[in-house]
Give the backbone structure.
Amino acid sequence: MRSREFITELFNTEPLELEWDGYGEEQEAKAVLPARPGYRSDVLRIKFTEVGDGVAEVFFSLNDDFDLTGRGNVSVIFATVINAITDYVRDMEDTIETIIFTAKEPSRARMYDTISKRVAAKFGWHVVPYDVMQKRYIDYLDALDFNFVIAKGPAPKEYKDANKPQHGEFKPILYVYHTEDPNLPSIKLHAKSDEEAYQWVVNNISKIQGYQDQEIDTKKLRATTIKPGLRKVLDLTKKT
């Protein structure tokens, strides 16, 4: 099945024609959406950048805006983006082994969660599970975005959770921990920023298991997107 046929089947939408510019480390695919009545034509840009040895990152924007909320033709946009990713994987398979793409909105993240699996399956690649992604590719990830990674070849046997949603409820996950007392568990929760995570813990500290009935110096609490060391983790994601 050709890539355009594959994308049409996936979205029931014909992707737009792509115009490619550049080669190797920096490439861009551009497509022009038909103009809506009273509006100018929208320009879709899909950028591919090699950020490491065999690792490429993908970003796309509409008129240089990364927010698609309220935009029309969303199915056409996504079909075209995935067509570009498919063509890129096919053309760069000798040099690129990992593709990272990110979403800033939950709606786009949900779509990417499905798309990453379908594209990976088409090429015999695999989706990297969230926990592995956070460890192996952390240097390439924007912590407060929704990151997705597909890698060449079949999934290792230990990647049991690769087919589960990569981001749970599609909210950023942060950890709050005490910098001076390793016996206190790190608190795993959903929050939009480290400040929001910190403030939630401060406001609820008297109700948190392991922290209640203790004199906690809240100034010693820190929030991070990376699981802190070997500490016990108290998972409160269902409460935040």
